[in-house]
Amino acid sequence: MSERLCEGRVAIVTGAGRGIGREYALLLAAHGAKVVVNDLGSAADGTPGREEEQPAEAVVREIRAAGGEAVANLESCSDWGSASRLVQQAVDTFGRLDALVNNAGILRDRMLTNMTEAEWDAVINVHLKGTFAPMHHASAWWKARHKDGQTDQAARIINTTSVSGLFGNVGQTNYGAAKAGIAAMTIIAARELQRYDITVNAISPHAQTRMTEGLRARSEEEMAVRHPRWIAPVVVWLASRQSSHVTARVIEAGAGELSITEGWRPGPVAAQAADPKEVGAILTRLVSGAKPNVGMNGQPAEI
Fold this sequence. Notes:
Elements: E1 10-14, H1 19-30, E2 34-38, H2 55-65, E3 70-73, H3 80-94, E4 99-101, H4 117-147, E5 155-160, H5 163-166, H6 173-193, E6 198-206, H7 220-225, H8 232-239, E7 250-254, E8 257-261, H9 276-289
Parallel strand pairs: 1-2, 1-4, 2-3, 4-5, 5-6, 6-7
Antiparallel strand pairs: 7-8
Helix pairs in contact: 1-2, 1-8, 3-4, 4-6
């Protein structure tokens, strides 16, 4: 490897025991980062796992075997106190923190009319609060350092959204709502934190993992191009000092492509009216002239 992009930097990766998060941790370490590998070891739906060895510890062992530096964290990133301890662990162990990669997530898919309160709460908690809590504690630490004169921090936050939240997917009101919230939170946080030399971006990954297994049959070629390893180079570059000019962006990565997702934009406009019938006529005209929403494939959706 000719150049290690994250040499000496310290990164936290949540949900790093398997799948995409594991690939992030391994490649960050290969590029010289010291990694805090966070993972509860739960099943895809958030229930307790059954492995003899915690996945986070297995990833740490793999990184160390390759000559890298890493420690495991087995706490929940969606718990306020645990998220604070996660950030503090990075600082206590490696002396600093440079990048936070929020990747942890679960699935509890259900049609809206059948979804339970528990299924809604669990997914929103892990994805949305599990992104916000580490962001809060990490950015507060960076803000304090900035006020102490550390103005060249090159701090990085990299979140995880999804096409389900960006474009909508049937059966995922909980997951999609959380992922849409993360995309909005990314843009807002980027605007708030730029003064402290912190960039904030989000990845919308296209990859075959245990969370997408069984959704549909795929060929060997499709499986190869959708391997999680294709997402990791994007995160490594975003976590490096080289990415200082990129912030408040949602990046789709995987399945053979990289792209920038453009958010909501104002569409057709008309003067307001007081009469509901007149409003109806105006809205009918505006809707007929508006661009259709797109689906998860990027093409116009029927609804």
